Amino acid sequence: MFFNPMFNGDWPDIVKDRVAERSKAEGLASSRLPAFTPEEIEFIKGTSDYIAINHYTSMMVANGVEGTYSKTDYNFDTRAVTSNHPDWDESFVGWALVPSGVRELLKHLKKAYGDAPVIFAETGLPDDGSSLEDDLRIQYFHGYFCNIL
Asked: Are 54 and 121 in contact (CB under 8 A)?
């Protein structure tokens, strides 16, 4: 979503429609998501040479129930419920190990933004520091690197 203006010149239609819908329900006169002018679209489109991402985990996503309109909230805007699959291993902070998720992300970026180079600015898995046995992190990096390459 956040790369879209730099590569395509505007927010995705689904984002514009959803934020406008939520803004109206919240009693606002216009969308909270500022619209780009034609000049801004022309100016920003194509301004990125690469994509830099931080990726740690993936989640399952389901359609959620409509949230309260008493406050503005990103989670209400998405109307999505996230969860981990019960078969996925998790770190002590609840991040699931889903190596195939990073491959799916890369496929999405390729489809949405073409051949822009992708840089992983951050990735990793926290541990609680209680042991030198680091098997879960080894499993994480092995799985993720195999799916990236």
From this structure: yes
List pLDDT tens digits, range 23-73: 998 889 999 999 999 999 999 999 999 999 999 999 999 988 777 767 777
Residue closest to 18 by CA, chosen among 75, 100, 59, 58: 75
For 98, other C-beta atoms within 10 Å of its C-beta total 23
- Token pair 């990125």 is found at 48
114 torsion bin: left (phi>0), alpha (psi -120 to 50), beta (else): left
Tell the burial category of 49 from Cβ atoms under 10 Å away from its Cβ (0-12, 13-18, 19+): exposed
What's the CA dihedral at 106, 111, 114, 118 to 10 degrees? -10
Residues 20, 15: Cα–Cα separation, whole Å: 8
Residues 46/10, Cβ–Cβ less than 8 Å: no
Residue 141 belongs to what H/E stretch? helix 135-148
Q: What is the pLDDT of residue 9?
A: 95
Q: Which amino acid is at 8?
A: N
Q: Could you give phi then psi for residue 111, rounded to 5 degrees?
A: -65, -40
